[in-house]
Amino acid sequence: MTVMEFLIRSMVHPGVDSPYFFKGRVITQSCIVIIFIVFMMVPSVCSGLPSGLIQSHQEPITISVSQPTHESVIWIDVVPPHVPVIGKVTTLSGIKDIFVTRGGEIVSCGCETKFACSVPVSAGMNSITVIATDNLGNRVEKTLNVTVHIGLPPPPAIHVSGKVHTREGIPVPDACVKFESVLELDNKPLSVSNLTGADGNYSIINAAGYRQTVIVLKDGYLPYKREVVFESQMNNLDLVIEPIQNTVPGFDLLVCVPAFIAALLIFYPKKR
């Protein structure tokens, strides 16, 4: 006799013999009614639960990729070129496998929550797809686009600001400040230039590389040229230039000295 059959017969025929699991207990009709109602409500309550709690195969699975980032630009100087793919898979059911695909090639990344694997790439645009499957068969994938350049990465761009002034601290406006990199493009050095403001301040943006030749040109001032090796991308550098000393036209040192000697010979009285 099932529990449900016993409950029904107990309500219809009080005093019926209980099955073995009710022996020694006294169950009133009111208790039987309550138990019957509870049994009837259980299916309704369970039907209102979230589907994820009833059917575990619908549990969520997600992928997060920390490296590389989407639409990133990567320089690689190793042949054949590879890109490290690093990330994490989140699931409650355990991981069955993780694969990374790129251009028809498939790389296994194991079955751990955190994954890292090296994926072969080629120059240009590459679509990298990470695919993860949990132990219940749920599958998720994420695609990243990266641009790959083969060769040494370009040098960092530096920014330099400062003031051009004389030794006396007088600012020099409208001076041309030029930064030339040791790197060349089309057999010409990469250079950036700018003019000083009324206060003598200048700003150089996106100069290529840490090693620069600094040149300052200004009418009425001696040309300035100096090689500087910077240590960071943001820098401050004040530059000191010297004005050209004014002389009377035609009366420089080579002319004045002979003229002075001749004057002495003419006007100095001879001894008799």
- The parts where pLDDT drops under 50 for at least 5 residues are 18-27, 42-56
The gyration radius over C-alpha positions equals 44 Å
Mean pLDDT across all residues, rounded?
Answer: 81
User: How many structural domains are formed by the residues?
Assistant: 3
CATH architecture of the largest domain: Sandwich
Quote the CATH topology of the largest domain.
Answer: Immunoglobulin-like
* CATH superfamily caption of the largest domain: Immunoglobulins
Helical percent range?
10-25%
Give the overall shape: rod-shaped
Main sheet: strands, sense, barrel: 5 strands, mixed
Q: Give the distance, in angstroms, between the N- and C-terminal Cα atoms.
A: 165 Å
Strand content: 35-45%
> Helix tally?
4
Structural class: alpha+beta
Strand order in space, largest sheet: 2-8-7-4-5
Describe this structure in words.
The chain has 272 residues and is an alpha+beta fold. It folds into 3 domains: 3-49, no CATH class; 59-150, Immunoglobulins (Immunoglobulin-like), CATH 2.60.40.10; 157-240, Sandwich (Immunoglobulin-like). Helix content is 18%, strand content 43%. It is built from 4 helices and 16 strands. The protein has a 5-stranded mixed β-sheet, with no helix packed on it. Helix 1 crosses helix 2 (29-47). The chain is rod-shaped. It starts with a helix and ends in a 5-residue tail after the last helix. The model is unreliable at 18-27 and 42-56 (pLDDT under 50).
